[in-house]
Design goal:
- With 106 residues, this protein is mainly β.
- Helix content is 9%, strand content 38%.
- The chain contains 2 helices and 6 strands; from the N terminus they run αβββββαβ.
- Strands 1-5-2-4-3-6 form a 6-stranded mixed β-barrel.
- β3 and β4 form a beta hairpin.
- The chain starts with a helix and ends with a strand.
- The relative contact order is 0.32.
């Protein structure tokens, strides 16, 4: 039973990084690359793998958290442009998404 309780789903808005961030250091110390499947989240531990689902079209992508953000009201995750492209949100810039992940065992 315990494994069921560890799955978490957050719903909210996703955005993606501007190209100006490419090559800069992220909060985790990694270098940000637009062509990698990474994302920023306010609280999840670095290295957490999450699945992001675009509610409008059902497309999903798996990304690794390596930065902090987004720092815009109402947004829950900031994606690399490669991840944003995978879920079809490049043209809209912002999309309603579900973010799913498993909590680590304590």
């Amino acid at each position: 039973m315990a494994s069921c309780a560890r799955k978490v789903t957050e719903t909210g808005k996703a955005s993606y990084y501007a190209d100006s961030f490419n090559g800069r250091k992220t909060a985790s110390g990694a270098i940000f690359r637009q062509n990698k499947l990474t994302a920023a989240h306010k609280t999840l531990p670095f290295g957490t793998k999450v699945t992001v689902i675009n509610i409008a079209n059902g497309k999903s992508v798996k990304v690794t958290i390596n930065d902090r953000g987004p720092f815009v009201q109402g947004r829950i995750i900031d994606l690399s442009s490669k991840a944003a492209r995978r879920i079809g949100m490049i043209n809209t810039g912002v999309a309603n998404v579900e973010v799913k992940y498993k909590k680590k065992k304590k």
